[in-house]
Amino acid sequence: MEARAIQIIQDTALLAHAKSLGTFTPVLALPADVKIHSIEKFQELRSRFRGALATHSLKDFADYVIAAQGPAVAGFVDGDSMACTVYFNLGTAAEPGHGDYTATLGLKKTAAFLALESAAQRQHAQKDLSDWIEDWAPNLKALDADDKEIDLRKAAGAIRSISIEQARKSEHVVGDMSASRSAMDQIEAKSAEGLPAEFLFTVVPYEGLVARTIRLRVAVLTGGDKPALRLRWIGEAQLREDLAQEFKQVVQQEVGGSATLTIGTFNLG
């Protein structure tokens, strides 16, 4: 008898008498080339309810979680992506569930917050920054070096009229055995209107959270042929940590006792 025929007889016998091996996790001994097929689609009902809701609406997310609540519902808040995922059938360590019935809330950044992030991440030409100030004037206040508010139109005009002044100072010292020479360049950016030192940008960062006032310090870069400007976001890292905590509190308040929330991400493994 050929080896292939013998193998087929052995596999057929193994399939006919396949039994659980009595391990903690149930397993069966089956031939290597056997494929498992689900026949759930042929049943009248699914074996269990499962699915994944994804929404940007805090209210709709909370309503869904409350309506679908069950025992040991757990949620995880990812502060980096400002998203919260709730598992309805995660179960417990003693009675673990499949974890394939979820609802995920991903907060959307507002247009103003996106504009702020973009502005703080790049250099600006004078006209570019002046136009940005005019576009977002309702959110902005300009301050001078003494923290006194100045007119926003005056601040935009000052940025448009920046001029670069350069002075050079030379010093030459001669001794009996040596000679030395030094030169110092002094470059200064000036404006007849008086440059703003900082901007205050008031914005609701994400839909559903409270408004924040963010400080942007103005820096003029004089290394090129034309002046460039940067807006340095003061306290950015701390603000993002605060937003993550606020996000958790807001979601917990909305869902009440329907889910227990933890800051972090969860991997089913």
UniProtKB/TrEMBL annotation:
What InterPro entries does the database record attribute to this sequence?
A: DUF2303
The domain of life for this entry's organism is: Bacteria
- In its UniProt entry, what is this protein called? DUF2303 family protein
Specify the taxonomic lineage: Bacteria, Pseudomonadati, Pseudomonadota, Gammaproteobacteria, Pseudomonadales
